[in-house]
Amino acid sequence: MKPETLERIGMTPGESRIYLALLDLGQSTTGPIVERSGVSTSKTYKILKRLERKGLVSHIIKKNVMHWAAASPKRIVEMLEEKEKEIEERREEAENLIPELMKKIESAREKQQAEVYMGMKGMITVFNDETDYLKKKNAVNHVIGVTSPIRYGKKIHDFFVRLENKKDNLKLKRRFLFSEEARGKWPTIERSKYCKVRYMNYASLVSVNIYGETAFISILSKEPIFFIIKSREIAESFKGYFEELWKGAKD
Question: 58 and 155 share a domain?
Fold first, then answer.
């Protein structure tokens, strides 16, 4: 057996070499162990004591000289089983902590007035949060400023197609104010029975999403940026702005 094999199951390089040396030597004093393992004398004793604490070696004293012996290799299996049990116990502890930790996160979020996210990963986070809220509260999503998918690029366009399909599957209600140049370009939204769409004579890469007490401004350039504002007053202001634009927009 190579030392690397034992290292893969959690032993250090020194531990694996000394344990294998003891298996070959049988009962031995430290001198032959040092010679066989290639581990320095200064480290060998410390490693032997460490292995002893793990139950992988034992010692006896003969004529005032300490002799060491390797425990059965079955002890390695037992050690792995103990680690598995410990990992399982820690996993259960972590799972029990999750509700409390989530409460802390939510509490911290409530105190935050503004957040900024960037890039596609940030985009995923922002819209996952939005979708989760809409699903939980059965709320209506208001969106100002959707334009032609050509302006956004394929990656962002494909993301929104997947997102809107998901929202349709969840039967989430949405209201959109599109630019005229987007007319007929977003069939996933325009044909959905869960969406209402009107059109404005204005096109921009900047859009506004409103849901609950949250509003966020999206700049959907190659590297998208999202400004999240969590405020009932601001969300209501944006919603009022949406309703005024809605009155003047075309079906």
Answer: no
Q: Tokens at residue 221, please?
A: 């350039």
Q: Which of 20, 52, 71 is the last residue of a domain?
A: 71
Same domain, 124 and 178: yes
The answer to whether position 84 is within a domain reads no
How many Cβ atoms from other residues are within 10 Å of residue 197's Cβ? 20
- CB burial string 75-110: b at 16+ within 10 A, e below: ebeebeeeeeeeeeeeeeeeeeeeeeeeeeeeeeee
Rounded to 5°, angle at Cα 184 from 187 and 248:
110
Model confidence pTM above 0.70: no
Amino acid at 171: K
Residue 107 lies in a domain: no
Beta bridge partners of 28: 68
Query: What distance in Å separates the CA atoms of residue 184 and residue 178, rounded to the nearest whole number?
Result: 10
Q: Are the C-beta atoms of residues 212 and 133 closer than 8 Å to each other?
A: yes
Residue 210, pLDDT score: 97
CA atoms within 13 A of residue 207's CA, in its CB half-sphere:
21
pLDDT in tens, 189-210: 999 999 999 999 888 889 999 9
Cβ contacts of residue 114 below 8 Å, gap of 6+? 227, 228, 229, 230
